[in-house]
């Protein structure tokens, strides 16, 4: 399998030894603010009971990102197929990696891989409308805001009243575009 790569990141398909790094991300309240409303309590929350991805190192569509040079853990990226032509992009990075362009860099490599190697026609991503950082990554990738939904939640987290946004990018519009 061709593995996406970037100037600053080594991306490899996740492995069981990545599990502790993944769990550490979920224990950071700021990292999980727009997914869970705060840190995940692993004594009470199971991955099958939540609507967001909690990888454990065995998922076939999750890539672990590490810094080139010192191999420090940065986060993970995923491109999960919904159909043979449609995939959902996701990413979660350590707070220390925020604001450095690494989310855009890794996501761009994975989107490129999805169009060039996996053969997807459309890649989509979603987040809470108030998650400006994640929305900015999607915009830098050239994704288009398609809609804002207002789902009802039994236990809403702060900001959910603003809705959830969906962005999409078509292969015909990607054409190897590099993020700005």
From TrEMBL:
Gene3D superfamilies reported in the protein's UniProt record: 3.40.630.30
N-acetyltransferase domain sequence ranges: 9-172
Lineage: superkingdom: Bacteria
One Pfam family named in its UniProt record: Acetyltransf_3
Name the record gives this protein: RimJ/RimL family protein N-acetyltransferase
Organism name: Neorhizobium huautlense
């Amino acid at each position: 399998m061709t593995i996406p790569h970037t100037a600053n990141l080594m991306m490899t398909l996740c492995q069981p030894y990545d599990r502790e790094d993944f769990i550490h991300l979920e224990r950071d309240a700021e990292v999980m603010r727009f997914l869970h409303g705060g840190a995940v309590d692993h004594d009470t929350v199971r991955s099958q009971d939540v609507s967001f991805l909690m990888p454990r190192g065995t998922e076939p569509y999750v890539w672990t990102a590490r810094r080139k040079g010192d191999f420090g853990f940065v986060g993970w990226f995923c491109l999960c197929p919904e159909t043979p032509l449609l995939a959902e992009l996701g990413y979660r990075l350590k707070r220390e990696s925020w604001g450095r362009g690494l989310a855009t860099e890794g996501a761009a490599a994975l989107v490129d891989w999805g169009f060039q190697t996996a053969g997807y026609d459309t890649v989509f991503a979603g987040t809470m409308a108030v998650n400006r950082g994640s929305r900015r990554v999607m915009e830098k990738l050239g994704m288009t805001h398609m809609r804002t939904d207002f789902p009802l939640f039994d236990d809403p987290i702060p900001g959910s009243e603003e809705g959830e946004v969906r962005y999409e990018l078509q292969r015909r519009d990607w054409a190897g575009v590099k993020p700005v």
